[in-house]
UniProtKB/TrEMBL annotation:
The keyword Metal-binding applies. This is Manganese-dependent ADP-ribose/CDP-alcohol diphosphatase. InterPro entries: Calcineurin-like_PHP, Metallo-depent_PP-like, MPP_ADPRM. Its cofactor is Mg(2+). Gene3D superfamilies: 3.60.21.10.
Amino acid sequence: MAKTVKRSNPLCLEGARQGWVTDHINPVSFRCIIEKRVVKPVCASRVDCMTSVQTGNTSKVLSSKRPRMAEQINIEEGKDGTQQPYFTFGVIADVQYADRPDGISGWRTMRFYRQSLLHLRQAIDEWKTEDIPLQFVLQLGDIIDGCNACLCQSSNALQVVLKEIKNIDVPFHHIWGNHELLNFDRIFLADSPLNTMFIADEQKPGMGTCISNSTDCFNYYAYHFSPFPNFRFILVDSYDLSVHGRDFSNPKYLESSDYLHGNYQSKDSEGSKDYSSPQLKEFNGGFSSEQLSWLHNVLKFSDERRERVVIAGHIPIHPKTTLKTCLAWNYIDMLTLIHSHPSVVCYLAGHHHNGGYHKDSHGVYHVTMEGVIESPAGTNAFATVSVYGDRMVLNGRGRVKSRVFHYQKWPLGNFTKSPLSQETAEKIRGAVTVLPTWAKKSFATPYTQSMV
Ligand SMILES: Nc1ccn([C@@H]2O[C@H](COP(=O)(O)OP(=O)(O)OC[C@H](O)CO)[C@@H](O)[C@H]2O)c(=O)n1
């Protein structure tokens, strides 16, 4: 049985301090939170709350059906010819379900906590009737709202959404967002149905491994899988560096706290420390050097095989797709890394509920999915993506706009040995604030904002 951390929930404290939850969300349902906070630390009874959640045996909750593997095919770009996609998958973000009345968030946006469950149900119903059955769904995080922890409803809310998901016989890949970490700690999550790492592909030599240790279960929760030849999906952990979800004594907590409080501030184009980083907030997080190094190895593997890669994480990494306050702490590190790998087609994120879209200067498409939680009745926010030989077509539903991601041409020459051109390498030296070993060797001159 996973150990739990008794800790106050910053969402509850912040909400209570700012008064926005009490002011704008049913004061009756919030009363018990206030009382708990005054009498004893908020959510001190979380251990009791969580005992009823089923742990371990994830295969009972998720479909055991492995994605169908077609025979190896020769994908010729731009000569697709067929109208049929090779495969399709679903995407959804920020369901943030809670059994509580609608309310106004700290961002002055309406949140529809009960409606979000109906939206999830509707998305599943529509996915079930797609002409081409989905191979899988990417759930980009925040499946239940942090307020469940304050209400001692974390386990109940999780069971409610997992029950909905069971209504479709398609595997869900779950990402962890800030609200997962407000409800549960990482040790609990690692042993819960929200850990879908068991659907990951086997790690091959040279691709790096996910490190686990006895104190933390997973240093980071990231994995990749190939549902169809020549295509790879990588789930990254944008709360690998985070002040939530780990015990205060955990070295990663201390590293994250240092990062958040400015010891690793990013640098501006002149190489000076940039103290204006608005993304350095507790409800955001970042990528450790170990994770970036692992990702580099996976992407190198994909480059070499000319695979087309989709990366998915909770927090956006491009400033043009979100408020700057909602970016990953070291988004520049992640951007720099993916720009050095031509296999990357797009980066899918959630977190910023208004959504966003941008094709960056390196031809990488960035989509921030609109949040289900802020979708009123009569709308919704999810997508089905069809994957072809030369493009991916994101068919948005409700508030999500449809998009086409055309693949880039592969660079000439043997890019696999050195994915960075000399010019690119020169541009990005100094870009990474947490330097992985490989990056220390590769980068040679200061980063400029034009890279973004
Ligand atoms: N104006 C604000 C409002 C809130 N905060 C801080 O954000 C923390 C988390 O807020 P929450 O709305 O629960 O987080 P979500 O992940 O649901 O949404 C973030 C989305 O990006 C919004 O589109 C809260 O504890 C406050 O400290 C803030 O800094 N400024």
